[in-house]
Structures are given as C-alpha cells and as structure tokens.
Write a structure and sequence with these properties.
coiled coil, PPM-type-like_dom_sf, alpha+beta, Serine phosphatase RsbU (Regulator of sigma subunit)/anti-sigma regulatory factor (Ser/Thr protein kinase)/anti-anti-sigma regulatory factor, Heat Shock Protein 90, Phosphatase 2c, domain 1, 16 helices, Beta-Lactamase, 6-stranded mixed sheet, Bact_Sigma-Reg
C-alpha cells in the first residue's frame, strides 16, 4: 500500500488522498495560489505554480516570508501572518492592495487571500496555510467600469439639471392667489434626461376676476423642447391676457403652431374659469380631458371638446361646464396617465381613484396639505409615479370656495406692542391664502414698517392714538393692505437717509405699489392712510423628485446665537424690526466689544429685515470702521434681507470663509 506524508510527518494512506505523484501534480496545477509556511519565522515548505505567478518569482521553498517578499515590509502583511500564528484565528481579505516587484518594477497588485493556522495533532500551531488569488486585472477593470458609470451618471445628472433649471426658468414658480379659488401645480421632470422638457403649465388671473388654466405638451424633449415650450407659454399667456377670450387665443396660437415646426402637433388643454359662478369654458386640443373631483372624492372626466393637436388643421372648439363649490378641477399631462405596460384608459381610472382619495383626504393624511387642490397635485404625482414614469409629469388643480376670503380688520393703539400684535394677526389671516414665503415676508415687512411709522411719528411725544389696519384680497389676486392713523404726517425723503425714515422708502421699493392719502391736503390734521398693493402668489413645485414639497416656512421667533469661531459669528433668526432691534443691538455690541473685535452677522435665517434693523446695522458698521475692523454681514442671495441690503447699500456676502471674516 502507498502512503502520503501527513501533518507532523505522519503517514496518510494513498487511498485517502491519492498517489503522491498525482497529489503533487494536482497541487501544482491548481488555479488558486496555495502555499504552506512552517514555524514562527514562516519558512515556505510548499508552493504551487499559481502562488509563484501571483508574486512573479520562483525562489520560495526553504526561504522565510521576510526574505522571499521583502517589499511587503511596512504593508501590514507580516503583522497579519504573525496575528494568525499567535491567535489561531483565520484571516480573510478581498481586494487587498499591495506593492510587489513584478516584471522588474514595483507595481500595485490586488489580492483576495486567506490565512489559516496549520496545526499539529495536539492542536498546537506549527505554521500557516495560504490561499491567494491575483485579482489585479479584475479589480482594475471593475474600477474603470465604476469610473465610467460615475462619469455617465455625472453627465446624465448634468444634462438633467440643465433641463430642470431651464424648466424652472420658463415655467411659473408662483400661482395666482384669488378670493374664491385655491390653485396648486406640480411639475416632475422625466427620469430620463432625453425625455424631459416638453410639458408646460400656467395659471393666470385675468381682468375681471376670471382664472385661466393651461397644461400642454410639445413634441420632442430636451433643451429644444423646453425652448419651444417657453415660447408657447409666453405667446398663449399674452393672447389670453389681452382680452380673456379663450376662442380668440386658441385660434391665434393654432395659426402660430401651423407656421412653427417645433410647436406643430403640440397638445394643450386650456380653460377659463369664473370662480364666483363656477362657469367653465375649456378646449382639449388633442389633450386628455380635465378631471373634476367632488369634496367626497367622487369624480368625472369632462367630455373632450373635439379637435386635434395644434397646427394640424383640425378645427378647434370650446366646451362648457359648471363647477360647484368645493369641486376640484384638475388638468394634467399625459405623463400622469400613461403608465408603463398599461393602456391609457387604465391610467385614467387610476388617476380618478387617486385624485378622489386625495381630495377627500383619505390617503397620506399625516402632514397632508390643507388645500384639496394641493393634495390632488402632490399625491397623484407621488403615488402614481411609484410604478415608474418616462415622461414629464404635470398636474394643475384649482378648488372653488363657496365664499371669498373675508377681509381682515384690526384696531389698535399706537404703542410699541402694536407691531407684534399686528404681525401675528395678519400672519394668521394670510394662512387662508397660503402665499409664497417670499410674499409673506414682504407683507410682514410692510406692516411692520407702516405700524412702526404710525407708532413713532403719527402722534406727539407722550400721546397715543388709534391705528386701524385692513387687508383685502381683490378678484385680480392683488392684496390691498391699509394702515390708517388720526395723527399728523411727516414727509419722508426721496432717498434713504442715514438714520431714520427708511421704512416707507423700503416698502415702496420692494412691493408693487404704495399710496398715501391725507384727510386734508396739508397732512397736518385728520390723519393719514397708507395703502400698499401687492400681487400675491402661491408656490408651484418644480422638481426632479416625486415626493418634493413646497417651501412652507412661516414666521419664527426672534433669537440670536453667538459662536466663538473663528470667525466670531452672531447668527440671527426671525424678525429684525422695531420689536427686536434693541436686543439685537445689545448682543451685537457685546459680541464685538463695541467694535473692538471683528464680528460676522449672519442674517440667513432672518425673515423680516425692517428699517430699525437696517439702522442698527449702519450704526454698528460705523463703530467697527472707527476701530479699523470690518462688520461682515451674511445674507442668502435672493432672500428678503438681501433685497433690503441691496436697496440701502449695505454690502453683504453669501457665506463666510471658515478661517476669517470677509472684508
């Protein structure tokens, strides 16, 4: 009987492991690198061809690991082997990078390997067993593929971002705010950048109080389609805004489409709604028909008005319907009803069901918007697109109210506390119409300045009198805010002064219109009424994410936080006005030791920057200049504080370097 040598020189019968020659040949031919090392100095006693090839060398047998692989020193390989020998626990590694001399030069190589203790019959450790696979080529190919995928993703995202930003520039980000109609809109850019860019929507308050609604889809996608879409929207808005005549606007844009290859065959659903009567005139122009959802969630599709896409020679016609109070009218693009692998009628049934549940507030009730129109747009897009979408998705909805938004009235005494009471009461009234945060901040700025002006200047020192406030939302979507007093009038300067009188000037600069009326022509008796007019907007949501939500930030309490830095930074939150300026000035003075130390004032989270706050900033800047230090002001570009700072000429930055304040 033949024998094979086993552990600790014991004999293993050949019938168990094979004939010695066969075992040696098989060991040598194994595609995996195999080796055995003996003793605490790790001297190789067995090495096969794959193991030798993995390290590009032949001299292993009888050589210690440190002698055979000297370049492994400092690469934490010797320490691994020492650890397995000492602990008796195996070690496994995947994609381990190491540097060895291959082909006469030091190269990066990647290995999958295992280290196992080799034991004597009594369990004591006598050496190490190794298994090694050279995965360098596979690793480099995988990493190259990963880089290619990352680059493709980057290019895809960049292309998609271009379309998204272009759509944001061309589509409305604000919707009309009307007394008897709540409007909502959401646009979801296609998941494929090659499919994005063809949808458009708009909602426009027409002369006389009617509301125009339109959702369209041009042929093609990408940047070219976005450009055509922008042209179509601008032209149709202009045509409809001239007279409010839907028939006239339809025929004019149809003739334009016939002459414009990019606009030809575009589909469109356009409607004109009278919010007071519910009367509706609409035309589908080859587009899916509008959906009407009652407050209880029951729904019906309006009949198609007939006619084909724009510019195709098809006769366009207008149909009529009547909506009831509480009804939600929904216009949408085909991307919302064309579900992958399903017929169009199935997609329309799904939309009717999901929209009905949203209007009745039966789905996703936690944190759902108060507005049924908002819920219809948000939840239909979020839920329906979960099964996939390849095209742009647009939803535009309006809900009729039985009664218009009631006017707001408030009578107060001209005392410093009037500003705080006024802002809180007006903010609560504005919640009914839900304007954009930007509009809300501007109205808050206006009422702060006008009431503060009456408190400080209307009545002689030591005396007080009434301040009467009112707000009305017109059928055209314009808010009229009035502040009246019975005192005398001091004419403000035409340009912003150094210390006072900025309030009215700032209000006139950032809102649409300011009118001042006196009880008598001189303004010396009988009181003054200041009326501010500003068109309000409700936020539309334009996003690449189905579950995106609109910015709903409302007024927050005033607070300051001092961070030692560097740079030493005073972060301000909430309103900076007549009611908070004293605290702000004290904390700013303390932060900078009266101007001795440079300070950064971060106004990023300030929602109202009134003239009192501006005066405090000018005062602080003067003190800091005297001491030779800058006062760095931080404000978010496009925010209300930045707009005010631009008006009054105070320099600011959008962020501060972490190591030092900006100069």
């Amino acid at each position: 009987m033949s024998y094979q040598v086993g552990p600790d020189d014991s004999a293993v019968p050949a019938w168990l492991v094979g004939e010695p020659a066969d075992v040696v040949a098989a060991f040598e031919e194994m595609p995996v690198g195999l080796a055995a090392m003996e003793g605490p100095d790790f001297r190789w006693i067995a090495v096969n061809a794959s193991y030798r090839a993995a390290f590009d060398r032949e001299e292993f047998i009888g050589v210690t690991m440190r002698e055979g692989l000297p370049e492994a020193q400092g690469q934490y390989l010797f320490e691994l082997v020492d650890g397995v020998y000492a602990s008796g626990e195996p070690f496994f590694a995947t994609g381990w990078r190491a540097q060895f001399e291959i082909g006469g030069e030091l190269q990066d190589r990647y290995y999958d390997f295992e280290l196992h203790p080799r034991r004597r019959p009594d369990g004591t450790i006598r050496g190490i067993l190794l298994q090694v696979i050279d995965v360098t080529e596979h690793t480099l190919q995988s990493r190259a593929a990963e880089r290619a995928v990352a680059e493709a993703e980057r290019r895809y995202q960049a292309a998609r971002d271009v379309v998204v930003e272009l759509q944001k520039a061309l589509l409305p980000t604000g919707l009309p705010v009307l007394p008897q109609a709540r409007v909502a809109a959401r646009y979801l850019v296609a998941g494929d950048d090659q499919a994005a860019g063809g949808d458009w929507f708009d909602a426009v308050a027409l002369p006389g109080g009617n509301l125009a609604l339109v959702v369209g889809d041009v042929v093609g996608h990408g940047v070219a389609a976005s450009a055509v879409m922008g042209q179509a929207r601008a032209v149709f808005d202009e045509l409809l805004g001239e007279t409010g005549d839907l028939d006239h606007a339809l025929h004019r844009i149809d003739r334009l489409a016939a002459r414009s290859p990019g606009l030809r065959a575009a589909t469109m659903c356009a409607a004109v709604l009278n919010p007071r009567t519910g009367g509706l005139r609409y035309s589908t122009c080859g587009h899916p028909p509008p959906l009407v959802v009652a407050p209880d969630g029951s729904s019906r599709y309006l009949k198609s008005s007939g006619g084909g896409p724009l510019g195709t020679g098809s006769a366009l016609s207008v149909s009529e319907d009547v909506l009831r109070p509480g009804d939600v009218l929904m216009l949408y693009s085909d991307g919302l009803v064309e579900q992958p692998g399903s017929p169009l009628n199935a997609g329309m049934r799904t939309l009717a069901t999901v929209a009905g549940d949203a209007v009745a507030n039966r789905a996703l009730r936690g944190g759902a918007p108060e507005s049924a129109a908002e819920r219809a747009c948000q939840q239909t897009i979020e839920l329906i697109t979960r099964v996939g979408y390849v095209d742009d998705v647009t939803a535009l909805a309006v809900q009729l109210s039985a009664e218009p938004v009631p006017p707001w009235r408030l009578d107060l005494s001209a005392t410093p506390g009037a500003v705080t009471k006024t802002k809180g009461a007006l903010r609560e009234w504005l919640r009914q119409v839900d304007p954009t945060p930007h509009d809300g901040h501007l109205i808050s700025l206006a009422v702060t300045e006008l009431v503060a002006n009456a408190v400080e200047h209307a009545y002689p020192a030591g005396r007080t009198g009434p301040v009467r406030l009112g707000a009305d939302l017109g059928v055209d979507g314009v808010l009229s805010l009035t502040v009246a007093d019975d005192g005398t009038w001091t004419e403000p300067p035409a340009t912003p002064p150094d210390l006072s009188g900025r309030g009215l000037w700032m209000v006139g600069a950032v809102l649409d219109d300011v009118a001042i009326r006196h009880a008598d022509e001189t303004g010396r008796a009988g009181g003054t009424t200041v009326t501010v007019r500003h068109r309000l907007h409700h936020p539309a949501v334009l996003s690449a994410e189905p579950s995106a939500t609109a910015d709903r930030r409302t007024g927050v309490d005033f607070s300051t936080t001092l961070e030692d830095g560097p740079p030493r930074t005073l972060r301000v939150t909430g309103p900076l006005d007549i009611t908070t300026v004293t605290v702000f000035a004290d904390r700013l003075s303390t932060a900078g030791r009266g101007g001795v130390h440079p300070v950064v004032v971060d106004l990023t989270e300030v929602d109202v920057l009134a003239s009192a706050g501006v005066s405090a900033l000018f005062d602080a800047r003067g003190r800091y200049t005297t001491h030779g230090h800058p006062l760095t002001i931080v404000a978010a570009a496009g925010g209300v504080p930045a707009a005010v700072l631009d008006l009054v000429g105070l320099n600011y930055v959008s962020h501060v370097p972490p190591d030092k304040p900006a100069g």
